[in-house]
Design goal:
By secondary structure, the protein is an alpha+beta fold. It contains four helices and five strands. The protein folds into two domains: about 50 residues; about 70 residues, no CATH class.
């Protein structure tokens, strides 16, 4: 994946190449828009990935209470989801085991609203890939 500084000159190159391709009759407006959307999606993914990486874990304790039940730090697990830019984001986060339950608890997911977004899956939001 490219860095922010690498995208700036690429935008100018893309505009020049697309203009030339249209002038030569090789592509039309539809193909031009598709190329621009592809370019913007790469930038959007980079921005979102940097935002997610910059989020601090909301809980660092080894023992917490979740819905009135004891939960204990289990290990680090990857949060994986496909964003609306069509690419996958992977981020390590703390996982907790809730006593007397088989499900885990992930404070970072809650902070990011991942579960709420997963519920909106059929409305075009991103897809959680736990």
């Amino acid at each position: 994946m490219k860095t922010f500084n690498e995208f700036i000159p690429l935008a100018g190159i893309l505009v020049k190449e697309l203009s030339e391709q249209i002038n030569m009759g090789n592509i039309g407006l539809k193909e031009t828009e598709e190329k621009i959307v592809e370019f913007i999606n790469q930038i959007g993914h980079l921005l979102l990935n940097n935002v997610v990486e910059g989020i601090k874990e909301p809980v660092m304790e080894n023992h917490i209470i979740v819905d009135g039940k004891d939960a204990y730090y289990r290990n680090m697990q990857n949060l994986r989801f496909r964003n609306r830019f069509g690419l996958e984001i992977i981020r390590s986060r703390r996982a907790y085991s809730i006593k007397e339950q088989s499900k885990g608890y992930y404070p970072l997911d809650e902070k990011l609203g991942i579960f709420a977004a997963f519920l909106w899956l059929f409305c075009g939001f991103f897809v959680a890939l736990h």
